[in-house]
């Protein structure tokens, strides 16, 4: 992705959040103001479904997505308006999702939610179908900064669902010093051994160590990957960290089984609502920015119903409900323009960061080079078995 597009990514979506600290400083959450979200009223069901051919709708649509990414209330509303039940299965990593499709083709999913790099990889592998955007008119509500990005430059395969960062959540009552950078994580204090959680995600985990060593999180150099691997093995011995997916990281933090964890934005927000002592930061060395997208896999039982669901989720009232309920950072410009999202969320600088102001302190993780992927996988396997 070129730098021009990267700088576009946050424009319009961080309005009201203000400028953040200069690059190299951790992004701390603001104090949450009183809830000021405007009441959200959905359009009448008939108006919402005016252009939908109900004779083409399946009775059920199957969605394979990240844990914690769906709202029962929203899915119930979709069923009420369209008569379609949404069945949800969840995964913990992009690679877990990809493996299921590579193992034997589409097992019956209509919609999937891959991250940026995985869209490009699955499209290249002919796992994704092109979206018929005539069935997704609400795509017009998506901010221009979330379209035409490096992984789907022609806007053929993906509809932005949400975006965020990979940061760190910690319990401020149990960690002596505020955590502001990954260097502190890589030098985990002995007295908190066994209380650190890291993501069980090959590239996210490796990127932390690569950036700690001063390398790019997207390096393809074997010696740099090797150095990062050794740093993580050393940390494993000294800190006895636990590898989990992000929803589990949230659960462990709330339960007190860990006092700090690498985590995705939305899970940190939910965890913070359950334990007010949790603080979410975007560590100031370099951290990952990501975008998760709705796509239709090849072999989807009902591509049309999948696109109707995607359009429904792009509606301003529905996007607002998801953002307010789940803690997702929405790419829906119309939702933000209408002021439908709680200001406690849009005013939180860790949830809606000023990406332009942060510049190179945020970066995408890209995958795709088979030789480099093999090096990463080998290193990851050795870390897990160490």
Q: Please state the average pLDDT score.
A: 86
Q: Structural class per helix/strand content? A: alpha/beta
In the CATH hierarchy, the architecture of the largest domain is 3-Layer(aba) Sandwich
Assign the CATH class of the largest domain: Alpha Beta
The low-confidence runs, each spanning 5 or more residues with pLDDT under 50, are 1-37, 39-48
Distance between the termini: 35 Å
| Strand element count | 12
CATH superfamily of the largest domain: Periplasmic binding protein-like II
In sequence order, what are the helices and strands, one letter per element?
HHEHEHEHEEHEHHEHEHEEEHHHHHEH
Can you describe what's shown?
By secondary structure, this protein is α/β, with parallel strands linked by helices. It has 2 domains: 43-163 and 291-342, Periplasmic binding protein-like II (D-Maltodextrin-Binding Protein, domain 2), CATH 3.40.190; 166-289 and 362-385, D-Maltodextrin-Binding Protein, domain 2. Helix content is 38%, strand content 15%. It has helices at 3-8, 45-48, 72-82, 94-104, 116-124, 182-186, 202-212, 222-239, 246-255, 265-274, 303-313, 316-326, 333-337, 343-346, 355-358, 370-385, and strands spanning 60-66, 85-91, 111-112, 128-129, 159-171, 196-199, 242-244, 260-264, 278-281, 287-294, 296-297, 362-363. Strands 5, 6, 7, 8, 9, 10 and 12 form a 7-stranded mixed beta sheet that branches. Strand 1 (60-66), helix 3 (72-82) and strand 2 form a beta-alpha-beta unit. Helix 7 (202-212) crosses helix 8 and helix 9 (246-255) runs parallel beside helix 10 (265-274). It is globular. The two termini are 35 Å apart. Mean pLDDT is 86; it is low at 1-37 and 39-48.
